[in-house]
Design brief:
The protein is of the alpha/beta class. Helices cover 32% and strands 27% of the residues. It folds into two domains: 273 residues, P-loop containing nucleotide triphosphate hydrolases (Rossmann fold), CATH 3.40.50; 71 residues, Alpha-Beta Plaits. Strands 7-8-9-4-10-11 form a six-stranded mixed beta sheet, with helices on both faces. Strand 8, helix 7 and strand 9 form a beta-alpha-beta unit. Helix 4 packs across helix 5. It is globular. It starts with a helix and ends with a helix.
């Protein structure tokens, strides 16, 4: 069976789209001016991060074990770009963000944010950035919403006049004007997350890191967050956002470009439209079938002409919705035969246009949806 990741790599150029080629030139001063192109807001060059598992050698004299979190990551993000970072749990996303936000040092390689070295100029970097993490329970319960946000604004030297104006504007955006003087301890989890989102913008940062910002939010609150993020960037063309998310539709809707990372390696980096074109030559079919067991997926994936297959149980558990990525349309016959061998009864079959999730599955080998189901089970 053709390896899906290898098939996509063969169709990619020598350097991944949007990924920086190795360079020996010294970095330019802030901002990274480039002839005919926008300056860079974020740049990483061959970044590695290795964690030591054991501090000492064991009794047998074996060397200490290590975990490679990042393995030669080189990326360029332009000013004014909303850049997405997608990857399964443990792919290296959080490690990379911690390095870019000066919370962690790389084992090797260099990183620049807003033209500044994150190691040598860490204090200045911190003045220009902000970070919002979904599910984060920030804030002091004894203080009111306004007092919490005002306190954070003072850490960045925002004048009281500007801070109070921005606080009211942001609370209006997230539909929490009535909570201005409410104690944080009395807020719901979703309200605290929305307050935390406000905190990320009241300091008027040059670069914002949004790490799963809609995690746990209801549909309306998530829609508000997405809408404001895009509007904020349109109103502030020089500002930059780096977004991580587990929601493919969110990444497709918001991001100008997306990097897919797994095992510390950037597998692809391009616009959502161009990433989906990587699968144009590999048709995608969706099949609804009854009578299958969970063990059927592995033999289905080994059938000739099938690049990869993913599936999820439909509500009620009576049927499976399967998605097949094929080498060519002629392989659909092998799909039908393989389903028959697994006692599957085809209820419906249709050809779909490739989605961002299909690209992710083809590169990484599993979907984020399946990963979330495993984590919750």
């Amino acid at each position: 069976m053709l390896n899906a990741r290898d098939a996509l790599m063969e169709s990619s150029p020598e350097h991944l789209p949007g990924q920086a080629a190795p360079s020996e030139e010294a970095p330019a001063e802030q901002p990274f001016e480039r002839q005919g192109r926008r300056p860079l807001a974020i740049k990483t060059e061959d970044v590695h991060r290795i964690y030591k598992i054991r501090k000492q050698k064991n009794s047998k004299g074996e060397p200490e074990k290590t975990l490679v979190a990042l393995n030669g990551v080189s990326l360029e993000v332009e000013q004014g770009e909303l850049f997405g970072l997608l990857g399964p749990n443990g792919a290296g996303k959080t490690t990379l963000i911690k390095i870019l936000t000066t919370l962690l040092a790389p084992s090797s390689g260099v990183c620049y944010v807003d033209g500044l070295d994150v190691i040598k100029q860490a204090n200045e970097v911190r003045r220009r950035i902000s970070m919002v993490s979904g599910g984060e329970t920030s804030g002091y319960g004894i203080l009111t919403v306004r007092e919490n946000l005002w306190m954070f604004s003072q850490f960045y030297g925002v004048s009281s006049k500007d801070a109070n104006q921005r606080i009211r504007e942001m609370l209006r955006v997230v539909e929490m004007e009535d909570k201005l003087n409410a104690r944080v301890s009395g807020l719901s989890t979703g309200q605290r997350q929305r307050m935390n989102f406000c905190r990320g913008f009241i300091t008027d940062p040059s670069v914002v890191f949004l790490d799963e910002p809609t995690l746990g939010l209801d549909i309306n609150a998530a829609r508000i967050v997405r809408r404001f993020t895009r509007e904020w960037m349109q109103q502030n063309p020089g500002r930059t956002v780096l977004l991580t998310t587990h929601y493919m539709a969110e990444a497709d809707e918001l991001c100008d470009r997306i990097a897919i990372i797994d095992h510390g390696v950037v597998l692809a980096c391009d616009t959502p439209a161009n990433l989906k074109r990587l699968l144009q030559k590999q048709p995608v079919f969706e099949v609804l079938a009854a009578g299958l067991s969970e063990r059927a997926l592995e033999p289905l994936g080994r059938a000739p002409g099938i690049v990869c297959v993913t599936g999820e149980v439909q509500e009620g558990g009576s049927a499976y919705k399967l998605k097949f990525i094929l080498q060519d349309e002629g392989a659909i016959g092998a799909v039908v035969s393989a389903l028959g061998e697994q006692h599957g009864n085809i209820l419906s079959l249709q050809k779909n246009e490739p989605t961002l999730e299909d690209v992710f599955v083809a590169l990484v080998g599993r979907s984020l949806t399946a990963e979330d189901h495993e984590a919750s089970s």
